[in-house]
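Re: beginner question about structure tokens

> Can someone show what the tokenized structure looks like for a real chain? I only ever see the sequence side.

Sure, here's an example I had lying around. Input first:
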Amino acid sequence: MLMALFVMGCDARPPSANAIDNDNPLDVAARDAHLIDDPGATSAVGLYERGGAAGSDGLCVAGEDEDELRFGVVMHFGSTLICEGAGSAEHDGDTLALDFDDADCAIDLVYDGRVLRFPGTVPDGCKALCGERASLAGGAMNRVGWTDGDAQRLRSRRDALQQRVPRALCM
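And the corresponding structure tokens:
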């Protein structure tokens, strides 16, 4: 019996840091007063960033229709060591599912309305998006923009490294 409970517990997904417990009147009151976001009712469209010593990391989510979202992501690990890719996204409650166009890589991010968190491990197919010693695993980015226009500001770092005009990643 104890082993069965242990196995069931391993399958449970941890709640988002700002997950709302709809059975808790304080959580409901805080959501209704707009003190905390309801990730299921808060559009993921916008720009998310995290600053670091190697440069800022960014993730954009764009789209007029929540059912047809596009995303782009850039993570820095040094002046030439980066992860970069783009594809389609699907927002469902406290999850933003990313499906990269140019790699066999699909990742579910935790979304709390203001922060996007990458999982601690990512599929092997995601290595194609990164340099040899870089990974998309474990990153977190804070929302810095709330609109489709904000999302369009994220530009390709690979293009810049190859001395091409950097294209917008959320097209």
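Each token stands for a local structural state, so reading them left to right follows the chain. The chain has a mean pLDDT of 85.
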